Amino acid sequence: MSELVIAYLGVVIVLLTLSTSIGGEEGVDLKHILIAAFGWPLLGPVLAWRAWLAR
Questions:
Q1: How far is CA 14 from CA 1, 44, 52, 55, in A?
Q2: Would you give the DSSP letter of residue 29?
Q3: pTM
Q4: Residues 7, 12, 13, 19: is their CA dihedral positive or negative?
């Protein structure tokens, strides 16, 4: 379990590093990257469940 947490935090750190290097002209800022980094573990299963029920 600890390896999973370390891998997840590593991906979050990489996303945050990339977000600060991206220029503002694309319209991607730190808030969008934070939502993507921390929102997908919650939103992913919800979307999968809704897709399963909609079959």
A1: 20, 20, 31, 36
A2: -
A3: 0.45
A4: positive
